[in-house]
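Page 42, continued from yesterday. The earlier attempt failed because a stray header line got pasted into the input along with the sequence. Redoing it now with the clean sequence only.
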Amino acid sequence: PFDFQIENRQIKVLFQIGDDLQNFIEADWNLYQLLMFNIVQNAVKYNKFGGMITIKLDIVKVGFGGKWFLQTDVFDTGPGIDKKRLSFLFKAFGELRRFNSLKEVKDNGIGIGLTCSKSIVDFMGGDIQIKSQPELTNVTVSIPIKMVDKAQAN
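This time it went through. Structure tokens are written below.
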């Protein structure tokens, strides 16, 4: 769905997929797809002309004898997010307080996408974090997964 925007704005997209992802993993892929749609949509929307988006997927184990998580990092080379705004990103309509006109709302959105993303991650029992500095924003999503033996998957 973003092909036109990516091509038109000459944004490069790089995928980095960890070796462990060759294993079969069990998760709610419909929710994961919706989650990634929201996050990648923001990475495209707020990126600069000729910018870059890197999507990194890996499997991590948390804690001694802990759970397995699919960790997805989405990096973009947009202008970055001001530290003051970071605390509002997961609040519904949190962006509205910044705008003085309907044009600004139309151009920037109203702050629903990341609120939905946070709700999805919470529902899945995962975590979402955003780190940002000028020209680099990183959204990290970790959702619990179940590792499945290939023989069981068939």
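Notes: The beta strands are 12-17, 24-26, 52-61, 68-76, 127-133, 136-148.
Reminder to self: strip header lines before submitting.
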